Amino acid sequence: EVQLVQSGAEVKKPGESLKISCKGSGYSFTKYWIAWVRQKPGKGLEWMGIIYVGDSETRYSPSFQGQVTISADKSISTAYLQWSSLKASDTAMYYCARPSRIGSITDFDYWGQGTLVTVSS
Amino acid sequence: EIVLTQSPGTLSLSPGERATLSCRASQSVSSSYLAWYQQKPGQAPRLLIYDASSRATGIPDRFSGSGSLTDFTLTINRLEPEDFAVYYCQQYGSSLTFGGGTKVEIK
């Protein structure tokens, strides 16, 4: 069974750093891309970026380029999303998601359960 | 970047009625690389339709997708109580973008 399991909720202060994770299982993790999607409270879905785990090729949405860093550790089938200096506006639910086709950036058929990040002084 | 505009923002319907949701792209979506998702409160999105008209695994046939180029439609025939949710379109023909969503609420 394919699963994406994300790390737990975080409460941080502005200016702090953070790294959240998404662990895949039940499929060949290195043969797929993994995307990160933001959803602010009561708002829609925003694609942030995507990484091909096999060679760590990464692409970012222009809106998020330079704001976050996406990485992966294929030895433990885990992808990461990190911030060096959080802002209150980063408060949101963050989802990881897997495209449906090997090696391609397509529709997302599997999603993590989401990680709620709250940034408040 | 391709911008996806969904309409209407909210659709108020009764169970048993048909829902027609629109997703319009600012440029042609190549190869009809467009998907539809359903999201219920507190849940991750669920894939309904991919490649504009193919139903994902386990999706009931009352959900159907159509369209091409810049105009796409999700139709839900005979709304069931569990279909009241927010629906998003997503294109993957040129990078990735999501539409703003349509909420289908009970009238």
Any overview of this molecule?
The complex is a heterodimer of chains A (121) and B (107). In chain A, the strands form 2 sheets. In chain A, strands 2, 4, 5, 6, 9, 10 and 11 form a 7-stranded mixed beta sheet that branches. Chain A has a 4-stranded antiparallel beta sheet with strand order 1-3-8-7, with no helix packed on it. The model of chain A has no long low-confidence stretch (mean pLDDT 97). Chain A has 121 residues and is an all-beta fold. Chain A is globular, with a radius of gyration of 14 Å. Chain A has strands spanning 3-6, 10-12, 18-25, 33-39, 45-52, 57-60, 69-73, 78-83, 92-99, 108-111, 115-119. In chain B, strand 5 (46-50) and strand 6 (54-55) form a beta hairpin. In chain B, strands 2, 4, 5, 6, 9, 10 and 11 form a 7-stranded mixed beta sheet that branches. A 4-stranded antiparallel beta sheet of chain B has the order 1-3-8-7, with no helix packed on it. The model of chain B has no long low-confidence stretch (mean pLDDT 97). With 107 residues, chain B is mostly beta strands. The A-B interface holds A 35, 37, 44-47, 50, 59, 61-62, 95, 97, 99-100, 105-109, 111-114 and B 1, 33, 35, 37, 39, 44-47, 50-51, 56-57, 88, 90, 92, 95-101.
In a nutshell, what does this entry contain?
The complex is a heterodimer of chains A (121) and B (107). With 121 residues, chain A is an all-beta fold.
